[in-house]
Amino acid sequence: MVTGAAARDVGFVGLGIMGRPMAANLLRAGHRLHLHSRSGVPPALLAAGGVPCPDAAEVARRAEVVFTMVPATPDVERVLFGPGGLVEGLSPGKAVVDASSVDPAATRSFAERVAALGCDFVDAPVSGGELGARDATLSIMAGATDAAFARVRPLLEVLGKTITHVGPPGAGQTAKVANQIVVALHIQAVAEALLFAARAGVDPERVRRALLGGFAASRVLEVHGARMTARAFAPGGRVELHRKDLALALEGARALGVALPCTAAAHALFDACVAHGDGALDQSALVTALERLAGAPVAG
Amino acid sequence: MVTGAAARDVGFVGLGIMGRPMAANLLRAGHRLHLHSRSGVPPALLAAGGVPCPDAAEVARRAEVVFTMVPATPDVERVLFGPGGLVEGLSPGKAVVDASSVDPAATRSFAERVAALGCDFVDAPVSGGELGARDATLSIMAGATDAAFARVRPLLEVLGKTITHVGPPGAGQTAKVANQIVVALHIQAVAEALLFAARAGVDPERVRRALLGGFAASRVLEVHGARMTARAFAPGGRVELHRKDLALALEGARALGVALPCTAAAHALFDACVAHGDGALDQSALVTALERLAGAPVAG
User: Fold this and answer.
1) Domains, chain A, ordered by start
2) Which of B154, B166, B84, B95 is nearest to B125 (CA)?
3) A244 a catalytic residue
4) Closest CB to B193 among A182, A196, A197
């Protein structure tokens, strides 16, 4: 039930692994949800009161604020501007919140085109994965004008725990790319360190625990490091999606004239994982690509 | 004063930035300290009751357990086996604890030579820097036999907060190298991410704070990330010492047949910092080498 705020007409387009639990949390908070997904609306969301719509345009006609949560930049473009897309149903005063993780530069252009229709655009990519989506503990990085951010903030607070207004439209996506650089290179750090220890004949799990007490402490050493020593590579965040995010980082960096040497190396190792058929494994499987270079595992 | 344990005759050789506060903590805990340092014994340690010795050999004659805390592998070798070195004063049943951060393979050979004299050898490198040494919050990674570890553990507990017995002699140094790999690549991760954000026109400090809420969270993002955005490069841990540790990692990796691509890249950037005259700055100054590649700072 909505506490301290009125129920709103909220749209949600894209009901995959992330979108589904996010939409469920908005329903649980008492909002009226208008839903569309290429693969159909999951029965659980209909049972909880969600209203199915034949296309994104219809979602935009019915809702005041429309969320999108789709895999990649071309998907956002299609949902917004393709046939039956959101812009066909948008009227001045509405708002679009893109929670997908996509190209910051493309996002700035989407924001301009939506603003030209008299609507707000907020990029609000998330970190925290399926678990964070379900438990509403996502970290959300928003790019928006102050007014647009204020308007959608109560909805973002239903979905996540740490909500940061990073800057103008596009800034949320830039922060998300930065996030993915940090997470990938933290995984790379832990993989190089544990492989070094294992090959030197020292128990990598004891090393991992010893390192948690000092400056090496990180959430990745805690979570992904444990997955490496336990050989538990069920996702979690998939190699192939993280690789896409690093590709955004490298394309962006090239356009900006920035060299990201370790991001490039991590991207190559994710490439190697995908080439080896491991694209659907957890990101921590990056260690297996390093191990193939060296010829022996961290553990097992 | 010693609580629940008898006062012991403890030696300390090497009274630099780290050794001095560690020796002071052992004195404060009520032990009798026998001290030697190439640059003389600091007056504060004498005032606190420390006994100066003319050389390391004399320290070994007077103490039951002797700590060494010197910059690099050749220094440990000199203090142990050089003229006036520890082995001249060691007699069966004594113990040597090397808290320096040095080569794991050399450490295994030091341990064997000391064991051949009927003495224990413990490698016990530390993480946590000058502040951790002063506050006795160091993380200590020990390599030793079970009996030798049990014997020196009460002394290590005076010096640090997280004490881990990682494995046999040399394992502590291997864990320390792993620690330095993780810390260096966490710094590299934060540097690449914040530089990317800054060059994309987004406030890197806001990005840093947004990232602390999710999987990107690390002690390095917290501490070294803040130093990068504040341009506060007073050490902390020095570039030139961390570079030495990464050189140990790369030499060890080569001997073990392990490829560490990002450790190699971070080492090259630390090299660039030293070449630029910044070797005495904090490790977080690694970001300045990336910036020179890109031609613009993270902030400032």
Assistant:
1) 4-168 (3.40.50.720), 175-294 (1.10.1040.10)
2) B166
3) no
4) A182
